Every structure is written in structure tokens, then in C-alpha cells.
Amino acid sequence: MDSVVLAVFVLVYAGMILGELPGLAVDRSGIALLGAIAILATGRLSLEEAWRAVDVHTLALLFGLMVVSAQFRLGGFYTETVRRIAARAPRPDTLLLWVVCAAGGLSSVLANDIVCLAMAPLLLEVCARRQITPVPLLLALACVSNVGSAATLIGIPAA
What are the sequence ranges of the domains in the chain? Predict the structure, then answer.
């Protein structure tokens, strides 16, 4: 195995685990981009080989899902969903069940990140009004949105 490729892989992998690399003000996406640039700059992969490795259809699908999910959020879909869940769930355990069903179902057809980002603040508001702890609901939301997304054909692309 090529030592340069191995070194880039280890650095990028460490950056993904840590969420950053010490001394660099970049997030995981920036770290991945820097790793790709390093592989191209060292000539370990040609520009043509790199381009062939990109699945444009998958990227277009993911972009489309994110746009649809964002429009649902802006249009109030998630607000209405959480409002209906809260209305149908008089007890915390019933609320938890409805959150699991709704978030898992939505994450299996939409981008799970936006499902979490859109539903979490609304769940916090419901919990504050009912004076219940939000931790189980937020953990369920995070876990089931990943499970719902993983159950699809494209899986969880950001994981």
C-alpha cells in the first residue's frame, strides 16, 4: 500500500472521528475535501479517475431529498406533524411511540438530518408545555431517524 495514501486516509479518518483537525478551522466536509485534494495533488489519483468515482445520480437524489425536506420545513409540514402527534398522545410513553413512528417513517423517505433539525425544537416546545423531560424523545428522534434512513436503498450517506 502507498504510504502517502495511507497517511491521508489516517488523517482524514481521525478528522472525521474528532470532527476537526487541530490547527485547522474546517469541519468534517472540509477535512474530506482536503483529503481528496491531497490525493489529487500527489498524483495518486488522476482527475479523470476521481470524476469517474463520483456517482452524480446519487448526489442529485440526495440534493433533491434535502430540497424537498427543507421545503416541508418552511411550509410548516413538520410543525403540523408534531402538533398532531402531541394532540394524539396524552401520555409521555404514547408521545414517544408516535415520535418513533413519525420520525422513522419520514426519515425513510426524506433526508434524516432535516427531519431531526425540524422536529427537535418542536418536541422541546411540547415537552416544556407538558413539563416532561425531553431527553428520551430527543434520543428517540435521533436514533430512529438514523434507523429510518438506513432502511432505504441509499442508506445514510453522511455517516
Answer: 3-53, 56-150
Name the DSSP class of 152. S
Burial 24-51 (b: 16+ CB within 10 A, else e): eeeebeebeebbeebbeeeeeeeeeeee
Let me know: does 124 contact 110? Beta carbons within 8 Å: no
- From the DSSP assignment, how many helices (H) and strands (E) are in the chain? 8, 0
- CA 35, 40, 43, 46 dihedral sign is positive
- pLDDT per residue as tens digits for the range 6-63: 999 999 988 888 877 888 888 888 888 999 999 999 999 999 999 998 888 878 887 8
Judge if pTM exceeds 0.70: no
